[in-house]
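Why should sequence recovery work at all? Because a backbone constrains its sequence more than one might expect. Tight turns favour small or flexible residues, buried strands favour hydrophobic ones, and helices have their own preferences. The token representation captures these environments compactly. In the example below, the structure is given first.
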């Protein structure tokens, strides 16, 4: 069952904004997005290895340069497998400087550090603060994320387990289509292998579009 987003509803913020959802089939949740760019970033985040949780529209209180209390809404806060948290603001390149976003993010980061230095018992809002633009989510990266989600949506747990077992003795590098050998001659093995990308079992080389002939790295190879 997919959990509905419990993020606060935020009105669309600029021209071209829209309200929609990305279905994170890996964690059975839906993520509310407010623009095409946020949708693309969300898909890339939920399919990235090492990501445990993605929260959207997370509020953070800080003091501006005049000492006035302000609230910034981070588009996403990502929790990684090692426990680190990354607060992410999503904005088109052309809007980053004119909105003063870079200065706001810097204030949030400094004040988070100061709060923890003042009292080490404080749990930091995030360990890093980032701005993501369309330069971080090119067509190949987004296309790969969309394919990974589509393959994960098939929910072939048995197929994924079979491919994982095959990877234990497979070469360190292989063509992803060769995963069909784990199950049979059909595309089932290929789809299962693609669905394993977020787990780190199958590592896609940066800047390459996923297809059956693509050479990938075996994250479960015993040769590593």
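From this structural description, the recovered sequence reads:
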């Amino acid at each position: 069952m997919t959990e509905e987003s419990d993020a606060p509803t935020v009105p669309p913020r600029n021209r071209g904004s829209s309200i929609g959802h990305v279905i994170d089939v890996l964690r059975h949740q839906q993520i509310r997005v407010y623009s095409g760019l946020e949708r693309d970033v969300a898909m890339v985040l939920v399919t990235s290895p090492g990501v445990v949780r993605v929260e959207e529209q997370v509020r953070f209180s800080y003091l501006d340069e005049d000492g006035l209390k302000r609230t910034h809404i981070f588009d996403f806060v990502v929790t990684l497998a090692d426990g680190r948290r990354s607060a992410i603001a999503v904005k088109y390149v052309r809007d980053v400087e004119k909105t003063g976003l870079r200065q706001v993010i810097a204030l949030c980061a400094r004040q988070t550090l100061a709060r923890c230095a003042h009292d080490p018992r404080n749990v930091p809002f995030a360990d890093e603060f980032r701005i993501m633009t369309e330069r971080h989510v090119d067509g190949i990266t987004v296309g790969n994320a969309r394919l990974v989600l589509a393959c994960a949506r098939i929910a072939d747990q048995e197929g994924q387990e079979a491919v994982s077992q095959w990877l234990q003795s497979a070469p360190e590098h292989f063509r992803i289509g060769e995963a069909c050998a784990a199950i049979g001659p059909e595309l089932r093995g290929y789809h299962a292998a693609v669905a394993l990308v977020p787990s780190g079992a199958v590592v896609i080389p940066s800047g390459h579009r996923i297809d059956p002939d693509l050479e990938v790295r075996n994250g479960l190879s015993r040769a590593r």
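A few observations help interpret the result. The helical segments are 36-46, 93-96, 101-118, 139-153, 157-167, 188-195.
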